[in-house]
């Protein structure tokens, strides 16, 4: 069985609908997957680099789960990446992560229609993913197809119906993520 490590980069997972639902669904379907919730582990942004590197070394499949924040990963997850993915560990002549599978999985607040060249974002979601592809290449990680869901913003969950709709979107996202993990 593959060792699956999921890094949750949501800055406040307890107040999330989509990312929390996705992680709950994955945990139920894949009980042996290890989920590291950065907001719980490192509320003060003091990353335990040795512990995180050990977890990565033990993984066959690495999943980054987060809400897209300012067209990238949230600050805590970016700090995790900056602190943990050091030269000599993640990349360089003594890199240790090469060959592991990487699945990038995220949600966006804006709806899919906003991510078009002629819309407000002026770029597609895929164009915002080049940074993840380049990171995977540098680290020798085998990037799997990216899994994402649009339209799960805080502002669009004011009613019970909107919350239920976001949970449904998140459950569908989780199904796609579980399939991607199992295929990796």
Annotation keywords:
alpha/beta, six-stranded parallel sheet, 184 residues, Rossmann fold
What does this structure look like?
- The mean pLDDT is 95.
- With 184 residues, this protein is of the alpha/beta class.
- The protein is globular and about 50 Å long.
- The chain has helices at 18-29, 38-41, 49-58, 75-84, 125-128, 130-139, 160-183; strands spanning 4-8, 34-37, 61-67, 101-107, 142-143, 147-149.
- It has one domain (4-183): Flavodoxin domain (Rossmann fold), CATH 3.40.50.
- Strands 1, 2, 3, 4, 5 and 6 form a 6-stranded parallel β-sheet that branches.
- The chain is built from 7 helices and 6 strands, in the order βαβααβαβααββα.
What is the element layout, followed by pairings?
Elements (H helix, E strand, L loop, with lengths): L3 E5 L9 H12 L4 E4 H4 L7 H10 L2 E7 L7 H10 L16 E7 L17 H4 L1 H10 L2 E2 L3 E3 L10 H24 L1
Parallel strand pairs: 1-2, 1-3, 3-4, 4-5, 4-6
Assembly state (oligomeric): single chain
What is CATH's topology name?
Rossmann fold
Largest sheet: 6 strands, parallel
Q: Based on helices, strands and strand pairing, what is the structural class?
A: alpha/beta
* Secondary structure tally, helices: 7
Task: Tell me the CATH superfamily.
Answer: Flavodoxin domain
Strand content: 15-25%
Helical residue percent band: 40-55%
Average predicted confidence as pLDDT: 95
How many angstroms separate the termini? 11 Å
* Rg over CA atoms: 16 Å
Uncertain spans, ≥5 residues at pLDDT below 50? none
Shape: globular
What is the CATH class designation? Alpha Beta
Please report the total strand number as a whole number.
Answer: 6
């Amino acid at each position: 069985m593959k060792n699956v490590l999921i890094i949750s980069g949501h800055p406040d997972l307890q107040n999330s609908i989509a990312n929390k639902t996705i992680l709950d669904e994955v945990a139920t379907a894949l009980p042996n997957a290890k989920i590291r919730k950065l907001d719980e582990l490192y509320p003060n942004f003091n990353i335990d680099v040795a512990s995180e590197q050990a977890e990565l070394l033990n993984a066959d499949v690495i999943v980054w789960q987060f809400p897209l924040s300012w067209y990238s990963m949230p600050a805590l997850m970016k700090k995790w990446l900056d602190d943990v993915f050091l030269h000599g560990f993640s990349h360089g002549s003594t890199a240790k992560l090469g060959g592991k599978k990487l699945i990038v999985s995220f949600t966006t607040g804006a709806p899919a229609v906003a991510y078009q060249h002629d819309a407000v974002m002026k770029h597609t979601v895929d164009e915002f993913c080049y940074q993840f592809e380049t990171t995977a290449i540098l680290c020798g990680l085998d990037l799997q197809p990216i899994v994402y869901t649009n339209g799960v913003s805080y502002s669009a969950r004011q009613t019970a119906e909107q919350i239920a709709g976001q949970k449904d979107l998140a459950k569908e996202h989780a199904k796609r993520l579980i399939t991607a993990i199992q295929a990796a």
